[in-house]
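USER: Fancy drafting a protein?

ASSISTANT:
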Amino acid sequence: MATQVAGAMTAQDRRVLAAVNVGASSLSLVGSGFIVLCYLIFKELRKFSFKLVFYLALSDMLCSFFSIVGDPSTGFFCYAQGYSTHFFCVASFLWTTTIAFTLHRTVVRHKTDVEDLEAMFHLYVWGTSLVMTVIRSIGNHQHGHWGAWCWTQSGRTGKAVHFITFYIPLWGAILYNGFTYFQVIRMLNNATRMAVGMSDRPYKFDARADMKALNRWGYYPLILIGSWAFGTINRIHDFIEPGHKIFWLSVLDVGTAALMGLFNSIAYGLNSSVRRAIFERLELFWPDRLQRWFPYSSKLRNQSQESELVSLKILDQQ
C-alpha cells in the first residue's frame, strides 16, 4: 500500500520506497489472485463461508493492482488510482469484519441465517467504502501528493481527513475482530473441554489438535495490526512533524501495508478445503508422482477435513 512518505527524502529514497511498494504489492496481487482463481475453478469451494473469503481476496487483489500502477504525472489516472486504492483497501478490512461476524453469529449465537445477510454485507462493505472515499475527497483540494503514489495528499487537511476516513475505521475493525474472535475461541474451547471430559482417551488427543486449530483464529486480527501499525505510527508522526521523515519507518510502513493481501490470502484463503481441492486435482494428473513427493498427503487431507468439522461436532454435543 502506498503511503505518505516522500517529504524531504532524496530521489534515491523515493526510488527505494517505490521498489518496496511494487515488490510487496506484486506478492499480494499474486496471493490474492490465486485465491480468486481457486474460487472460480473449484466448485466445491463455493460455499458461503469461502464466498466471503473470495470477496476479501478480490478487494485485496484490486487494492494491490491500483497501488502498483500509481503515477502522479498522469493527472486523471493519478486521481483514479488514489481513490480506487482507498476504496478497495477499506473494503478489504471491512470484509474481515463480515467473516468475524459470521463466525460469531453461527458459533456463539447459534444462528443459521447468515446466508440471508449476504446482501446486507455487500451494502455495508461497498457502501461504507464509497462513503469513506467520497469524504476523503474533501481533503484533496490542494492537489498535492507524495512521491510515486497518488493515495495521499501533502496538505494538513488532507492528512486529517485521510486519517479519519481510513485509519479510524481500520482500528475499529481491528478491535471488533479481536473481541469477536476472543468470544468465539473462548466458547469453542469451553465446549471442547466439556466434550473431552465426557469422552474416552482417544478422543482427547483429537480434541487437543482441534483446539490448536481453533486457536489459529486468534491470529487473524494480528494481520491487520501487523500490516498497519507502522503506517499508523508514520501518519501520526508525519502530522506532528511534517518536515521530518524517518526513512526506516517509511520502508516498514510501505512494505507491511503492501503485504496485507498476501497475509490475508495465506491466513484466510489457504485453508484445508483449498489445499484438499488442489491435492485432489493434482492426483488426477500425477497420482504416482504426487505420492512420491507427498507420501502423507492423504492422511493430512483426512485430518484437515475432520478439523474443519470440529465446531459442528462440538455444537452437536452441547
Observations:
- Residues 28-282 form a domain with the Rhopdopsin 7-helix transmembrane proteins fold (CATH 1.20.1070.10).
- The radius of gyration is 22 Å.
- The chain has one domain: 28-282.
- The mean pLDDT is 78.
